[in-house]
Specification:
- The chain is an alpha+beta fold.
- The protein has one domain (5-104).
- The chain is elongated.
- The strands form 2 sheets. A two-stranded antiparallel ribbon has the order 1-4. The protein has a two-stranded antiparallel sheet with strand order 2-3.
- The two termini are 18 Å apart.
- It is 30% helix and 13% strand.
- It is built from 3 helices and 4 strands, in the order H-E-H-E-E-E-H.
């Protein structure tokens, strides 16, 4: 798969597939951009306080946003004919319990 911005959703789907296939003993998965810093001690503390959470996702969610139809990040109608996007997580980082990834894939 070529590393293009427009392939981002395919890359995330591949990540989830890989996690489901290879990481059956992990409790949480962090998906983050390569230019993001996460304090690992704070992350461990957060995960420990949310260990019982098995269907929640943690990140900045967005919904009812409209695609840009011109400019650098434009999305043409042939690729996305709908008026708005479905709810999704904004980058730069999202934390998923591994039990959620099975249902997203």
């Amino acid at each position: 798969m070529k590393d293009f911005y427009r392939n981002l959703s395919l890359k995330v789907a591949a990540l989830f597939n890989w996690v489901n296939t290879n990481c059956d003993k992990v409790d949480f998965v962090v998906k983050m951009d390569d230019d993001v810093y996460i304090d690992d001690r704070n992350l461990v503390q957060f995960v420990q306080t949310h260990q019982k959470t098995n269907r929640s996702k943690f990140g900045s969610a967005a919904g009812n946003l409209w695609p840009a139809r011109d400019g650098k990040w434009r999305l043409i109608y042939e690729d996305w004919p709908w008026i708005s996007y479905p709810p999704y997580f904004l980058g730069p980082a999202v934390l998923f319990p591994s039990s959620v990834i099975v249902h997203i894939q």
